[in-house]
Amino acid sequence: MEGAASGGRGGLITIYNPASMDIPWARISVNRNHPSVDLADAEFHEAEGLQIAMAFNPASAEKLFAGSGHTFAEIAALGKDRKPLPHFALASSLKADSVIVSTPLKCQNVVAKLEGGDPALKDEYVVLSAHVDHVGIGAPIGGDKIYNGAMDDAPARRWCWILQPR
C-alpha cells in the first residue's frame, strides 16, 4: 500500500478470488455507498495518500488483464493454491471520480491490557476482536439484513492476532 501511494498511484482495486468468496458479489456490491472508518492515530494509517479503493466484480475481472500476458483465471488459481503471485503491469486503465468526506467521530469500544508473566513474551500482545455486523445492516439479501463480513463473529467466529514489536 505504501508503494502505491508514494509511486503516484492513489488507488487500490480489490478483486475477490471466486474460490474463497464467503460473501456473494450481490452483498459485497451493496457496500459501495457505505462509509468506512480509519483510526485517528497516524501510526495506524495503512493507506496514507490513497484516493480511491474499490472492489471489482470477479465475473468481469478478465477485462482488466487483457493485454497483460496474464489472465485473472491464472492469478485466481495461483491464489487458491497459495502460490506466489507475479508482478506485472496491466495494459488497461480505469478512470474514476471520487469524493472523500472525512468526519471525525468517537465510537464505543472496549480495550484492555492484561500483562502476562513470561518475560520473553512481555512485549507481545494478543488482540481479540468480535462483532456482528461488519459491514452494517440494510435491505435484506436472501432474507438476511445483517451484512456480515470477513471479520465477523456471526454466527460464532472469533478473530485473533498476535502483535509483535518491530
Textual characterization of the structure:
- By secondary structure, the chain is an alpha+beta fold.
- 14% of the residues lie in helices and 17% in strands.
- It contains four helices and six strands; from the N terminus they run αβαβααββββ.
- It has a two-stranded parallel sheet. A two-stranded antiparallel sheet has the order 3-6.
- Strand 1, helix 2 (25-29) and strand 2 (52-56) form a beta-alpha-beta unit.
- The radius of gyration is 19 Å and the shape is extended.
Topology:
Elements: H1 2-6, E1 11-15, H2 25-29, E2 52-56, H3 62-65, H4 72-80, E3 125-129, E4 137-141, E5 144-146, E6 159-163
Parallel strand pairs: 1-2
Antiparallel strand pairs: 3-6, 4-5
In short:
With 166 residues, the protein is an alpha+beta fold. It has helices at residues 2-6, 25-29, 62-65, 72-80; strands at residues 11-15, 52-56, 125-129, 137-141, 144-146, 159-163.
